Amino acid sequence: MNRFFRTISLVLFLGYALIGCSIKDEDPSNQDPVQDGQTSLTDFDIPDNFNYETTQEINLKISSENVSEPAVYSIYTIEEGNNYQLRGKAMSDPEGNLEYNTNFSKHIQSLYIKRHSQGVDHYEVVQLISMIHKVEFTQFSQKVSASNARTLQEADSDNDGIVDALDDYPNDANKGFNNYYPSPGAYSSLAFEDLYPQRGDFDFNDIIIEYNINLVTNADNNVVELDMDFVAKSVEAELPSGFAIELPFHADSISNVTGSVLTGNVAFTGSKGLESGIVASKPVVVVFDKSTDILSGDGPVKSSDHIYITVALSNPIALSALGDVPYNPFIFVNNEREREVHLSGKTPTSKFNDAYLRAGEDVGGYKTVDNYPWGVHVPIHFAPPKENVDITNAYLNFSEFATSGGTSKGNWYTMQEGNRNSNNLHE
C-alpha cells in the first residue's frame, strides 16, 4: 500500500511539473532573455566522469628544524588582491611536525603558513601545485615583522597546552582552535534546481544555501564541535524545499544537535536532534524542512534569517578525517522528504525513493545521460543568475570549466574580469 501511494504521489508531481513548465512557457514574463550569442548548458559535451567539483583536498606535511616543544601553525589562504584569510590553526607534536588535511577552493593558488614557537613567529608561503605538500621551516624561514607578530604570553588559563594568546578558547580546556570553511565571516554556496527528477532550466537559483562551517578542535587537533551558519535564498521558486546534510561519521560520536528549523512536518528529529529513521552510520542533520516558511523579501531574491546549527561530539574525531566540508548536502522538494536532490556524484540517504530514478532523467549519481547536474557547489558567495538565465550566460567560463572536466577555468565563479555577465546576475 505504501508503494502504491508513493507511486501516485510521484505521478501527481510529474504532472504538476509539466503543467508548471507549460504555464511558464506561456507567460511572457517567464521567457528566457533574448540575447545575441545566448547559450545553454545542453549545447556542451561534458565528460562522463566529471562531478563539477570546485574544491580539492590538500595534505600539508609540515616540519620544523630545531624545535623542542609543540608549535602552533596558522593556515591562511591567499585570495585575489593578496588578501589573507585564516582557515584554521593546529598544534604540532613536540618536534614541530604536523599533518593538516583539508579541502581548499580550486581558485586558491597559495597558502601562507605561520609558525608560532617559543615566542617567535616565522612564516612560509606555499604554492598549491599538487595534492601533497611538504612545508619545511628552517633557519632561513622568514620572521614575521614585529608589527604583525603577536606578543605571546606564557599564561595558559585552561591548562590545555595552548598559551592564551593563541588559544581561541583560553578558558575552555576542551576547545582550542577554530577551523573555518571557507574563512571567518565568509560564505560558500550550494545552488540547486528543484524540478528533479526532470532537469530544470540550469539557472541554479531555485534554492541556494550559503554556509560557513567551523570545525572546533582541541589541543590534540580532534574535532569536538561543528558550528554551522546557514542562510537560504531563492529566486522566484514556487516549490518549497528542505535542506539537510549527511555527515561522514557514526551517530554514536554525536551527543546532540541543536538549531534545526522544522516547520513543515516533513522531517523529524530524535532525542539527539538528528533526523529520525536514518541509519546510524550515516546520520543526517536537517537544517530546515520548508523553505517557503523561512524566506522573505520584496525583490526577486528571497532570503532567510541565519540558521545556526551546533553538532556537539561526545567522541572527538581527528580533523584530518573531517576536512571534506560540506560533506553530503542535499535538498528535498515539494514537501516530499523522499525526493532528495544531491550534488553530482553524491549518493542519496536511506530515505530516498528510488522510483525517481525510473521516472525522470537521473541515470544515477544525480546526473543526466549527458552529465548535466541538479546542483553545484560554489566555494564563495554565489550571485544567482536571473530567472530562466542559463548559468552559461551568467558565468561565462562555466562552460569551459565543464567541458574541460575541471582542468580549465577552475575559478569561473570569482570576480576576475571575464568570468561574469553582471546584467544576468542578482549581485
From TrEMBL:
The organism's place on the tree of life at top rank: Bacteria
Domain DUF4842, residue spans: 221-413
Pfam families documented for this protein: DUF4842
Xref: NCBIfam families: LruC_dom
The name this protein goes by in its record: LruC domain-containing protein
Provenance organism: Flammeovirga aprica JL-4
